Amino acid sequence: EQRSPTTYYVRKGPSAGGMLFPRESSSREIKELNGLWNFRADHSLNRNLGFEQAWYKSRLAESGPVIDMPVPASYNDITQDPRLRDFIGWVWYEREVLVPSGWVSEGTRVVLRVGSAHYYSVVWVNGIKVMEHEGGHLPFEAEIVEVLRNNPGGACRITIAVNNTLTLQTLPPGTIQHIDDPTRYPADYVVQNTNFDFFNYAGLHRPVMLYTTPKAYVDDITVLTTFADNIGLLSYQVSVLGSPNPTVTVTLSDKGGRCVASSTGPSGVLKVTDANLWWPYLMHENPGYLYSMGVSWAAFIVGSVYEDVYALPVGIRTVQVTNTQFLLNNKPFYFHGVNKHEDADIRGKGLDWPLMVKDFNLLKWLGANSFRTSHYPYAEEIMQMADRHGIVVIDECPGVGIKDIRSFGNASLSHHLAVMDELVRRDKNHASVVMWSVANEPAAEMPPAGFYFKTLMAHTKSLDPTRPVTFITDSNFARDKGAPYVDVICVNSYFSWYHDPGHLEVIPFQLNTQFENWYGKYQKPIIQSEYGADVVPGLHTDPPMMFTEEYQKMVLQNYHDVFDRKRKEYVIGELIWNFADFMTAQTVTRVVGNKKGIFSRQRHPKAGAFLLRERYWRLANETGLLPESTPFCA
Ligand code: GCB
């Protein structure tokens, strides 16, 4: 039996305007609110007690017991309580801060920004509701200076209620099942069902911060880049809010801080002679070259000078797709990379700097030049690392597990379109992002999938005409209704694992057929967007058996032999599933999570990692533009 989970969930449209990453400047200050927050899960039967008793109106500790909760982090693995690990419904976070008196002065905006919270959030400041947001993995913010002004002394109590409930219309979708069978289940039994293969971690996953801007401020910047011969061209658009006639100045500085171009006006073109292009890692000896685009605005308004300054890192590069190649800066690019997850012991999906730097070091050790943000947008801090290190990114939205025909309806589609708005708005200026992925393994053979994906991909292209768009498929090539609209075919397959388990000998046949079928039908380049096998680290057999290190190696080797033939034709990339082991829901096919990592969850290499490392460095030397003397590893 399924009941509409109205008490679990409220709906609201996306916020408008820009979503620039907060950066300090001469006109902007930041206060990070990371650390310990007060926390309580609402265990009441309808999960609605917090709203009924208005827990946001006073200190959380006044309405009941609170525990320490670190931010950013998922709350699920922080305590020893299985009821919190598997909790469904509203949890409450609270933090008190003092705001400097200068922040509440006339002429200043104070913005409260949440990097991401899974899944639905309601935010109050000093008991006054300031925003709601639907969807994990993307930032949201609200101006709160008016609320702060009402409360002299700078006290600022932030309360955030977060609900992890997934329904047929959320992204990712899920269903809430109420089971009423006293002979088999306890009373009021509720489970959350999902169709995706990772744990539905929840909470405040990314930094929460306060930042200031002047009242008239740079709200958004859009940069498109190209080049001709040695001249780099950046066309930009700046939107300033709060001033009728802004005078915008734009400068472009190179890595050494030298100004190489400048312009005035809210839109224009910057020309850079002898431009350093943005190149991927291992494709060039100086990868990830970023300029700094300084945008400033100044004016005199009733006797005072207002000024806002913002510096955006930008890379100059082009992306193009032909029917057999993926071109970066007009050179063929071969994706040799990974699929990842935001996932780790204890912190779940919480942003973690040591883990992030470790993962980039492992990518470089591996010789990987790319990753896909399977299956949702990653933290902005990760995207910035990818820009700086020249790691190419396929940027995926949380459209994973769309398997039920009811998730192809209008409500789902309009939310999906809104999520693409938010994703493109956030990530459009990242040089590392070379393609958008609107979904992973949807039921693309269902009748409504054609209209759904046609609309979704056309919308994404209208938001960003410069990047190819795709979705990742595991459907039959002849019946897939979304594939006609993609620029690059991205296929997942698990031969000798989910199909013909234990039979490595089928891989060369089935993989060859897969490629020939897709290319034959569409004449579009193909990325093997997932392939792999589970390994429980330390298990060994010969001949290889499933779940051993030897078997994963053999699966990889068999796939690679086919890739090596087909990459001479139209295969343009291979992304292993997965970079590291990760947590999933509990099921009979998962031994404490998915073990298809080439690294363990603690980032220790399995045998497959060494095999892949040799291959990726070899590919880099063959397909990159590196000088011959480049050593085997960085
Ligand atoms: C897939 C999914 C991925 C799973 C993987 C697996 O096709 O895209 O989310 O984790 O297979 O290991 O089953």
What attributes characterize this protein structure?
binds (2S,3S,4S,5R)-3,4,5-trihydroxy-6-oxo-oxane-2-carboxylic acid, six-stranded antiparallel beta sheet, alpha+beta, globular, about 20% helix, about 625 residues, single chain, eight-stranded parallel β-barrel
The end-to-end span amounts to 56 Å
Overall shape = globular
Major sheet: arrangement of strands:
25-26-27-28-29-30-31-32
Number of helices: 10
> Main β-sheet, in a few words?
8 strands, parallel, barrel
Bound molecules: (2S,3S,4S,5R)-3,4,5-trihydroxy-6-oxo-oxane-2-carboxylic acid
Tell me the radius of gyration.
25 Å
User: Unreliable runs, pLDDT <50, ≥5 residues?
Assistant: 1-14
Share in β-strands = 25-35%
Given helix and strand content, the structural type is alpha+beta
Mean pLDDT: 95
How many beta-strand runs? 32
Helix content bin: 10-25%
